[in-house]
Design brief:
The protein is an alpha/beta fold and 245 residues long. The chain folds into two domains: 127 residues, Rossmann fold, CATH 3.40.50; 89 residues, no CATH class. It has twelve helices and five strands.
Length: 245
């Protein structure tokens, strides 16, 4: 019987490229079938399903693969750093979606609209009101009750996991053991920023891979703007115990 279907769920600016690089390396090494399109198009013979916007119905997948089973990993990031990473990435991104003119931006592309704003404050608020805000709502709406088939991880913990104290149980949860586990962890080491890789979430794709960027960047005005838009997101996602931060 085939091993469980591995489902890798991330969100925009939560390490999507990094996770994809690791699991693509595993795919090449083991000659596995990898799927990156929608769940509706997922073939029965798929071994790894990469979904970089977490548009996944795990209950439906569990029902579809009752014998093989499904094992997933879901990565989130501090919403404040999602906003910072997104805003400064989107002013220079060459991604097609961000460079297509849109009516909602007065005929400008997303990149042009955010780049035209005169201050970092305005860029960050724009990001809250658009792509970054959407990501935060998607992270908050995720079903965190699927612990039997989904390993939950925080980007901030993974990027400093030099001793692989999170990655090891994560890979074991996904079904890797023995020599396969060692192979998977080898790729984690090689393709992670803490391992010296330049391209785990490549330098041309991210502004900074570190956590808690918001501490230096969020002014009282930005904090107020964030709290107004996402009053309970940090508490729901486990990044703050209360509203006073």
């Amino acid at each position: 019987m085939k091993p469980p279907l591995i489902v890798v769920c991330t969100h925009h600016k939560t390490g999507s490229v990094w996770m994809a690089n690791i699991f693509r390396a595993i795919k090449r090494h083991e000659k596995l079938n990898l799927h990156t399109k929608s769940q509706a198009e997922l073939p029965q013979e798929a071994d790894i399903f990469l979904q970089d916007h977490s548009k996944v119905d795990l209950k439906a997948l569990k029902a579809r693969f009752p014998k093989r089973g499904v094992r997933a990993v879901h990565v989130i990031r501090d919403p404040r750093d999602v906003i910072i990473s997104g805003a400064f990435y989107h002013v220079k991104t060459v991604e097609k979606w961000a460079n297509n003119p849109k009516k909602e931006y007065g005929g400008k592309s997303y990149r042009q609209a955010i780049s035209a704003l005169p201050t970092d404050h305005e860029k960050l608020v724009f990001e809250m009101d658009h792509t970054g805000g959407k990501t935060i709502r998607e992270m908050a709406a995720w079903d965190y009750a699927m612990k039997d088939i989904c390993f939950e991880a925080k980007y901030e913990d993974l990027i400093i996991d030099r001793d692989l104290k999170i990655f090891t149980p994560m890979m074991q949860f996904l079904g890797f053991e023995g020599p396969r586990l060692e192979m998977a962890l080898k790729f984690v080491r090689e393709l992670s920023l803490f391992g010296g890789a330049a391209g785990s979430d490549p330098a041309d794709h991210i502004r900074s891979g570190e956590g808690r960027q918001w501490v230096r960047t969020f002014t009282p005005e930005l904090k107020a703007a964030f709290k107004e838009r996402f009053p309970d997101a940090l508490q729901k996602l486990g990044y703050e115990a209360g509203a006073d931060w």
